[in-house]
Amino acid sequence: MTAGTRGEQIATFDLGTVRRFADLAVEGLSAAREEIDALNVYPVPDGDTGTNMFLTMESARGALREHLEAAEAAEPGVEPDLRAALQAYGRAVLLGARGNSGVILSQLLTALLRRMGKGGPEDRSAVLMAEGFALASEAAYAAVGNPVEGTMLSVAKAAATAAAVRAEDPQAHLGDVLHAAAEAAREALARTPDQMQLLRDAGVVDAGGRGLCVILDAAETAVTGQRPVGAPQSTGSARRIPQPIAPALPTGDLTEGGPAYEVMYLLDVECSEDADESEVIKDLRTRLGALGDSVVVVGGEGLWNVHVHTDDVGAAVEAGIDTGRPRRIRVTHFAEQITRAQERRATRRGRAVVAVAAGEGIGAIFAEAGAKVLIGGPGRRPSTGEILEAVLGSGADEVVVLPNDPDSLGVAQAAAAAAEEGGEIRVVVVPTRAQVQGIAAMAVHEPGRGFDSDVVQMTSAARSTRHGAVTVAAKQAMTTAGPCEVGDVLGVLQGDFAIVGQDRFDVAVQLLERMLGGGGELVTLVSGQDCGDLTERLEQWIAGAHAGVDVLVYDGGQERYPLLLAVE
C-alpha cells in the first residue's frame, strides 16, 4: 500500500509504520495524560480520561509487541504479516479498552485498522486511510447509544471529513491525508465548548477529543517523521483552545441527577445461523439505554466491549447474560472514585521503585539508587505476596516494579494487578528480564517528572540494553550453543546460551564482541562471586579494542554468575 510523496519518495504503510505509531501514541498520551485528566468534566468529572486512553493504547502496544515477537520467533528472518499484525493490534485495543473514552477509542481504531488491513498493493494508502477514517467515525457514532456533539465523536468526524477531501486529490499521499485530519481535529477540538454548555461553563475543551488529537499527531509523525505542531492553538486560527479553569477536581455531589455506577464488561456473542449479530447488539444497546446513559457497545465478530452508566448494576449485567457471555466485569462507583481521586491529589505520597535483586551486592546497587529491594535470584525468587507486600509497604501511590528476571516477571504482574484492585495506587511493571536491565532503568528514573513519562523512559532504557552473562556449567547438558561438560564456561546472550568455552575471559570477550557489534556507548560489568580479576582485564581489553566506549563496574556479589554484562 503506497502513495507518491514529496520529492518523488514513496511513503509506505507497512509494519514499521504500525510499530512507530504504537510507540508514539503511548509516548504522546503519557506526556499529555495529566493535562487530559484535568480537562475531564464530561460525562463524569472523575479525572481519568487521559489515564484511560493511555492505558488502552499501552495495553494494545504490549499485545502488538508480543504478537510480533512470537511471529518473528516462529519464522526467523521473515517479516511478520501486516494484516495479522493489524488484526492483533485492533483486537488488543478492544480487549484493553478502559472507561468510556477508551471504549470509543477502541471502536475508532478497530474500524480504521480493519479497513487498512483489507488494502492491497494496488491501493493508494491515502485513499485507504481516508476511507478508514470515515468508517471509524461512522462506527463510533453507531456504537454510542446517544451520541453527543462537542465530544471526541465530533473531533473524529471532522478529521474524517478533512481526510476525505484531501484524498480526492490524486497527488495526495498518506502524510497529506494525516496532516489534514490532525489539523481539522485540532480545529474541531477548539469548537467543542461552543457545542456543549458543560465544557463552556468549565472553560475547557473535551478531554477525549484532546486525547484523539494526540493520537492523530502520533499517526502523522509515524508516517512523515515530522512532529506536527500540537500546541493548543489550531493552525490557521487565532483562537486559543481553552485550558482548565482550575486543575483540581470539582467538589460536591457530582453524581446527583445522574447514574451512580459505571459498568463495563467483555461480551462473547454466539449467534445461530438465522440470527443477525448486529441486530442482537442493537437490541442490547436499546436495553442498556433504558437502564442508564453513556451506552457504548463496540466490537464485532463475536467479541464486544460493553460500557454503560447506570444505577442498576445487576440489570446491566443481566442484559449481557441474556445476549451472550459476559466476562471481565468491572463496576465503578463514581462518588467513591471521585473522592479517591480528590484524596490522592490532596495526600499525594510520591513514587517508589521495587526492585528484585539477585544477591546482597546488587541489592545495594539498587538501594543506593533509591529502590526498595527484594532479594531474589535462582532458588529464592520472591512470591506474588512478597512483591505485593513490598509495593503496599512502600508508602507511595505510584510504584514501579523491576522484576529483573524472566521467571519473576509474571509474579510481579500478578502482584501489580492485586495492588491496583483497591483503586488507590498505580503500579506498573517494567519488563526487565536481567539485573543489568534493571540497573539501566534505575539510571534514568526521575521521581520529579510525570509517572507515565518516567515509566516510558525506564522501559526504553531497559529495552535498549543488550545483556549477557558468564556462568559455569554445573552438569553435563545440551545447550542452544551445543553440548557442555561440568566446568565448561558458558556465555549467555539475551537469555540464551550462545557460547561454550573453557576460559572465562575468552568467553566474556566473545560476548562483548557480539554485543558491541551493533554499536554501543557504555558497557556495564557486574562482578559476582569468584570473579577474580576478570573485570579489570575486560576494562583493559575494551580500552584497547573499543576506544571511546565507557565502562562502569559494579561489585554485585551474585551467585552462579561470575559476571553480568550490559551494552547501551
Q: What would you note in describing this structure?
A:
- The chain is of the alpha+beta class and 568 residues long.
- The chain is 50% helix and 18% strand.
- The strands form five sheets. The chain has a six-stranded mixed β-sheet, with helices on both faces. A four-stranded antiparallel β-sheet has the order 4-5-3-6, with helices on both faces.
- It is globular, with a radius of gyration of 26 Å.
Characterize this entry briefly:
With 568 residues, the protein is α+β, with helices and mostly antiparallel strands.
Total number of β-strand segments?
18
Number of helices: 19
Structural class: alpha+beta
Major β-sheet profile: 6 strands, mixed
As residue ranges, the low-confidence spans are 1-11, 230-256
Rg of Cα set: 26 Å
The rough form would be described as globular
Cα distance, first to last residue? 35 Å
Adjacency order of strands in the biggest sheet: 15-14-11-18-16-17
Q: Percent of residues in helical segments?
A: 40-55%
Features:
single chain, 568 residues, alpha+beta, six-stranded mixed β-sheet, four-stranded antiparallel β-sheet, 19 helices, 50% helix, 18% strand, globular
